[in-house]
Amino acid sequence: MRILLTLTVWFGLLLASAASAQSLEDLARQLPEGSFNDRAEVVAKIGATGDDRAVGLLNALGEGELRVREADGAVIQVKGRGSKAVGYDPLTGDELGPVGSGSTESIRVNNSLRRAVRAAIGLLTLSSPDAGKRLAAANTAFAAPDPEQIEALDTAIAKEGDAAVRTAMEQARAAAVLASDAPGAEKVAAIGIVARRGGTDALTVLNPYRGDADAPVAEAADKAIAGIERAQQLWNVGQNVWFGLSLGSVLLLAAVGLAITFGVMGVINMAHGELIMIGAYTTYVTQQVIRTSFPGLFDWSLLIAAPLAFLVAGAIGVAIERFIVRFLYGRALETLLATWGVSLILQQLVRTFFGPSNREVGNPSWMSGAFPLGGLSITWNRFYIVIFAVAIFVGLLLLLKRTLFGLQMRAVTQNRPMASEMGIRTARVDALTFGLGAGIAGLAGVALSQIDNVSPNLGQSYIIDSFLVVVFGGAGNLWGTFAAAFTLGVANKFMEPFVGAVLAKILILVFIILFIQKRPRGLFPTRGRAVEG
Amino acid sequence: MASTSFIDRRLGVFLALLAVVTVGVPLANTALSPESGLHVPTYMLSLIGKYLCYALLAVALDLVWGYCGILSLGHGAFFALGGYAMGMHLMRQIGSRGAYGNPVLPDFMVFLGYEKLPWFWHGFDMFWFACLMVLLAPGLLAFVFGWFAFRSRVTGVYLSIITQAMTYALLLAFFRNEMGFGGNNGLTDFKDVLGFSLSSDGTRVTLFVLSALALGGGLLVGRWITMTKFGKVLVGVRDAESRTRFLGYRVEQFKLFVFTVSAMMAGVAGALYVPQVGIINPGEFSPANSIEIVIWVALGGRGTLVGAALGALIVVAAKSWLTSAFPDAWLYALGLMFILVTIFLPQGVLGLIEKLGRGRREQPEPEAVEAEA
Amino acid sequence: MICNLKHFGLGAAAAASLWAGSALAQEETIKVGVLHSLSGTMAISETTLKDAVLMMIDEQNKKGGVLGKKLEPVVVDPASDWPLFAEKARELVASDNVSVVFGCWTSVSRKSVLPVFEELNSILFYPVQYEGQESQRNVFYTGAAPNQQAIPAVDYLMNEEGVERWVLAGTDYVYPRTTNQILEAYLKMKGVAPEDIMINYTPFGHSDWQTIVSDIKAFGSAGKKTAVVSTINGDANVPFYKELANQGVSAEDIPVVAFSVGEEELAGLDTAPLVGHLAAWNYFMSVDTPENDEFIEKWHAFIKNDDRVTNDPMEATYIGFNMWVKAVEAAGTTETDAVLDNMIGVAVPNLTGGISSMGANHHITKPVLIGEIQDDGQIETVWETPGLVLGDEWSDYLPESKDLISDWRAPMSCGNFNVATGKCGGTAAN
User: Fold this and answer.
1) Which domains does chain A have, with CATH numbers?
2) Which InterPro entries does UniProt cross-reference here (chain A) (predicted)?
3) Does the pTM exceed 0.90?
């Protein structure tokens, strides 16, 4: 630990205090012993050593990679599983060769220990050369204010060059001051600094001082909290709009395929949900293949899965049209029965081949986590799903309005005999149109696999909503489906905080029932084949 | 040409067979010894009783779909409401025999911390009131719903989807424990009705006979409605609504009347169903259940009443049998059955039977109206 | 059509007798009913239990069966349809003459079949954690009662993690309602202020958790350590945890302890962002005992897939099955009353290294394990009760059930004896 010591005052101080206690090697040996609380203290001591090797050791502990070798009781780091497990020296990083299964015992980590690790690493990385790491360390210190860190933070602030990191460090310092027994005036100033950060984090820090024994402190805290909460209320409206758009995009995805098969062609396609499910399972299979054969491509898995899902679901759609639906044109309601049968069969097929339980479809790294937008926190997966839904919708519009196939499709929908007279192969157009609707359902499945269960029941949970959206929008009108999906999504999310999730949904249903009384052909009524009952 | 008489050949045969079953099955259950090959065990008797309730439900749907073109995807809701009305009575009958021994509150209310009985539970301790509600609850809902929908001329698929929305909303509502209907668990643990233990064979036989009588009655009511001039108007509404309207008929009122009667019939079916299966829960409101009713009717033969009952019996019996015989593969068989019947038997099973019969007798059936949806 | 119907009836009867006939021709068997949904919404969870029972039967037959007879499974599919559960239960007992039934998952399916088992006097083993508030003569509850899961989990969070503020989130049905009621009473007894408890219910299969997760984050910003106690049901969990992970709620900030999330549910998830969230059960696949290793090995061999996980309801099935075998052997017959008499006190090894025994209240003794989710989808034990805990059927923390006890031994033989009034509250045993 005497190696590589950084030449800062506080580091030196820490070093001295640690040196008087125990060496890093000694501390590491103590990690497996005692209760979680005892071990959290050991972790704090490791953090206080300031030793560069400690970060690696603590990271390994936090990741659950530290194990005790049963032969000699040494603490080693094990990477990989089963036959691929390889041991390393946690301090030097030297490879120790393969580790047989059963020859080591894991060092248990729980949340409180993980918190201790996070805090210790934060302390150690406050002076890291990487600005991102310093920021993370400052944020960790902010979330877990500790008066003991004030000194360390002061040192770090003094030599910090990056303005953003510096601000975060100052806020962390203020939070630590609040937790200390500093005089009231200093605390009031600290409250001001913390309040400027705003958001939920600041509230978490400030809330305990609401009823502080020191009156000015309590007053300042109250004022700061009220201010943050006012700002949050405004942002909440934005947050609800976003949640609503996100829910709307899910509804749009689920419904837009149906807007073709049901809205345009008039087939009451009860197997629509199962086509979505097929899309989700295609994603699963694609990811499995990528995981086993091309692990490097994992982040591309969804982009690879999307066309595949479109083709698989589309092919099944064409098959359904050719073998079943085509015999039922002109008997719209009876398509309900046959496609219901198809949906039962598809569900059971998936259950037979993939088993009844949920399958894991992972989020690629670019779809994980969230990013802040003002006071909003927007999750990446929802963000991309909104974009994906709108892109599909626009693509579909272009296809219908700008291509020959779209023209033929509209011709067949509007006047079949005339279209046939003009030389359009109506049977082919029917099959492709149904296939298109099915393929889009498959695409929806790719997106929904990111937020929902991938199980044989996946389709069942979307089928009713899909029909409602299409009917509410006005069957046969794509823009109607678009408007309906987002209207219902936003309305639902605005009601949810007041009446709860269930009642919000019931109210939406009642609203649709009443709305249809007013406008019996939906939001945007169209003329067209079928749809008529 | 049997169709001009009130009871035509089709209905006559069915009612005769129903009468045989009504008398025969209970006899075979009680009079014959279990060793006898013709003995019908009690569980089979209850099972058939349950099927008969489903058959009545199918007849109710056929009345509105087959004769007036209203494809209701929410008839399960009326069935369930009738069932809940009866279930609430049976629940009150338990009295202090519940697990907590509370003389007034049902068990689920005790552990959810209810202080007193919610207002809408009052009166259900009286049998006549419960029976009234069996008719009124679904009837009223159908009346209000239909009054709005038919007046606004909501038709076709739009009507189907909002009936589905209705049953879905009710499903969600009844799932809520705050509603006071027992939430997901629904109402269960019934003990007796009018003082007769529900688990005694005598009560079972009585319920069975009542179900059979209700089915027969339902068929006759349906026949009466559709046979009269009124019924002819209905068929007119189904096949050409606007034309019928221009002829001067108030189409809405015709539809509303039939819709309400049909809902009450479904309610009766539900009320008879509950004591025989011993539980009523929100699952009965699920849209999938209502779709299944439509499938029974289509499979049996739409617009024939008898066909609807037949379809229900075939599908539920097949489901009972397949789920035991092929627990892993029965959905394939059921799904395939729906597809094949839809494509190859547009007139349903009844149409097939009659076609075979006709082939032999060469007698045209005038009533097989090709119904375009 | 009646012809048709009768045809069916006779056909089924004929098929049944044929089946029975062919079985008789080989040798006399003991029939075991398996009543788990293989299709519909609950197939996700229940299919595994069907396979577990089949494996146990297979194992037992390899050992020569029971009482010198082979066991014969009768599998039916109640299709997640609650009235169908009652119908199938009746069919199993009355028509197939099974000696015992292993089955049910949801509370409503159990409630639906209870009258059938009572009336026909047969035996049901119910292997899933449930809300308690029930003890029936013909049913043995091998899953956890609230005191074997919920209360120790809350104790752990309170003592080890210092949690002061609680979100009780659940699906709106009877198990979460009752569990949360018990927990609320318990927390208040421990001095938690009412404003520090937030209760939230969502419908089955809820998939849009954005609002609720952000509410939880807001609730957790009061400066007190906050935890979520989740009784969210199976299907809704995947979207819930995905939303938690994406909104950045980590276990170190707001831990979620779940009572319905086990290895099977986690298999449908990428657990890396969930490391540290907790689960409370009586068994984890990761438990390191020879019994468990053997069980997992047999399971993998039986299901022919080394990736399949085991979970708590499977262990409960294992315990229940072995208890039944032992009681039948003690009774020397599969006759219901004799087996019931021999069940109480039966003790068999569980998979966590202890011996579970059947209490007089038809619940069993088990250890309570608190575990944290790992990045490989396993749950590692971080705490366990020092000894075994007996399931408490009537919760002591609810005013309406605190005076009730259950004891199925003669002379009491009562499932809801009121110690205050000294009377057996409900219907007495048959």
Assistant:
1) 9-116 (no CATH), 126-213 (no CATH), 235-518 (1.10.3470)
2) ABC_transp_permease, ABC_UrtB_bac, BCAA_transport_permease
3) no
